[in-house]
Amino acid sequence: MIYQGSCHCQAVMFEVEAPEQLEADLCNCSICKKSGYLHLIVPKSRFRLVKGEDHLLTYTFNTGVAKHTFCGVCGIKPFYIPRSNPDGVDVNVNCLDTEPTSVNIVPFDGQNWELHAHKLASKSQE
Q: 2-119, what's its fold?
């Protein structure tokens, strides 16, 4: 299924191909908790930025591997390149404009990321 998504002001818009019934990770790390992020990691081939590349800003911290992109107009973080899957894209399910049929939310212990990152490592594979 092709989902449409965007930031709040719709300066950034994207499409993502994912199953009708989604499984999303709810991470308890500091950045995910504070930004209200609900993770859907997909291969880059299943993601397409429709518009707004010129509005995207990038924030990095710690190892600098994750590229946390957000809209420079409204500040919303609709997707980013995750440290766990730098060959994929992590879409914020909360930014999908197309409603999924259902979302199975799986807790992820990001506060102890080094111990649990391996559980996410294959999510960007075709």
A: 2.170.150
